Amino acid sequence: RLEEFLKKEVDLELSALPDFEERVIDFSEVEQLMNSINTIPAPCAPVINPQAPNAATGTSLRVCWGLFSDDTVECYQVCYKPVSNERRSDEQAEHTLKVKETYCTITNLLPNTQYEFWVSALNASGISPPSERAVYVTAPSPPTIKSKKIRSCENAALVCWESRDINPVDSYMVEL
């Protein structure tokens, strides 16, 4: 039987809906979408601002920077470490945090201490080179008045205090 079947010519005709037979696929929307997607380069290095007046407390610093290009940026990476005069300054712990804005306030710092800051910009393509490094200084902690050593008379007063800062303080302002 198989031999007889193989000798016969079989005419198969498949029927399909007319919509399917004449369907032309339009890729123009996909092509427009593909053309609109362009690769964005990694951003340029941000420019860190010098420390602004009144931008420090004894334990915090407000750091600001800018990006002077039209680069697309998703976030910024702020790095900082205490400045050390010792030779082993490279061993100082670096801290890093990510922020969306072009400024941030760093807290839990030591009073009257210099910190070195630098910033990088990030997007989907990568990370920018770091900015130049800038040194910021926290404010000294308030001195402690030695109340047992205060002396006064009609025209004068003697007030003594001591600093709790490790680093020397440049000057003090006494207000009456």
Query: What's the overall geometry?
Result: rod-shaped
- Which percent range describes the beta-strand content? 25-35%
State the end-to-end CA separation: 122 Å
Oligomer: single chain
SSE pattern: HHHEEEEEEEEEEEE
How many DSSP helices?
Answer: 3
At the fold tier of CATH, the topology name of the domain at 47-137 is Immunoglobulin-like
- Radius of gyration over alpha carbons? 35 Å
CATH class call of the domain at 47-137: Mainly Beta
Helicity, as a percent range: 10-25%
Structural class: mainly beta
CATH architectural designation of the domain at 47-137: Sandwich
Please report the total strand number as a whole number: 12
Point out poorly predicted stretches: none
The main β sheet shows up as: 5 strands, antiparallel
Could you characterize what this model shows?
The protein is mainly beta and 176 residues long. The mean pLDDT is 84. A hairpin with a 2-residue loop joins strand 6 and strand 7 (126-127). The protein contains three helices and twelve strands, in the order αααββββββββββββ. Strands 3, 4, 6, 7 and 8 form a five-stranded antiparallel sheet that branches. Strands 1-2-5 form a three-stranded antiparallel sheet, with no helix packed on it. Strands 9-12 form a two-stranded antiparallel sheet. The N and C termini lie far apart (122 Å). The protein has helices at residues 2-7, 18-21, 28-36; strands at 47-48, 61-66, 75-82, 95-99, 103-106, 114-123, 126-127, 134-137, 144-145, 151-152, 157-158, 161-162. The chain is rod-shaped. It has a domain at 47-137: Immunoglobulin-like. This is FSD2 protein. Residues 46-142 form the Fibronectin type-III domain. It comes from Oceanites oceanicus (Wilson's storm petrel). InterPro entries: E3_ligase_FN3/SPRY, FN3_dom, FN3_sf, Ig-like_fold.
